[in-house]
Amino acid sequence: MTPPELTHALVRSDASREGRARRSDGGFVILDVLLGILVLAILLLTVIMSVGPYRQRSYQASAISDARQLGGRIEATLSDNATLVGADCPPVKTH
Predict the structure, then answer these.
(1) What is d(CA 87, CA 70) in angstroms, rounded to the nearest whole number?
(2) How many separate helices (H) and strands (E) can be counted in the chain?
(3) Domain limits, the chain
(4) Over 70: is that where the pLDDT of 51 sits?
């Protein structure tokens, strides 16, 4: 009968001859971890590429909203003060 250490060594040598990595303790092989990281990186890249156009549209919508608010404030200032600056200047008379 062979001792357990020798049996374990024989199983490992058989696995290396077959070209596969066997783990008797149930842990991950480094290749499994690298493949997991690769899959996550591909998913993250896909998400980032698909979100780009939506971000651009949101920036454009924000700029349009800011321009409309600014126009409303300018109109309010002109109607309240009859001038853009707000100083005590008489209105300009046109002939």
Answers:
(1) 19
(2) 2, 0
(3) 52-79
(4) yes
Give me 19's structure tokens: 């070209």
Cα–Cα nearest to 76, from 94, 68, 61, 62: 68
Which pair of tokens denotes residue 86? 């707000």
Using alpha carbons, list the distances in angstroms from residue 4 to 8, 13, 14, 67.
6, 14, 15, 79
* Long-range Cβ contact pairs of 83-87 (< 8 A, separation 24 or more): none
pLDDT at 78: 80
Please state the pTM of the whole predicted model.
0.42
**SS3 state at 93:** coil
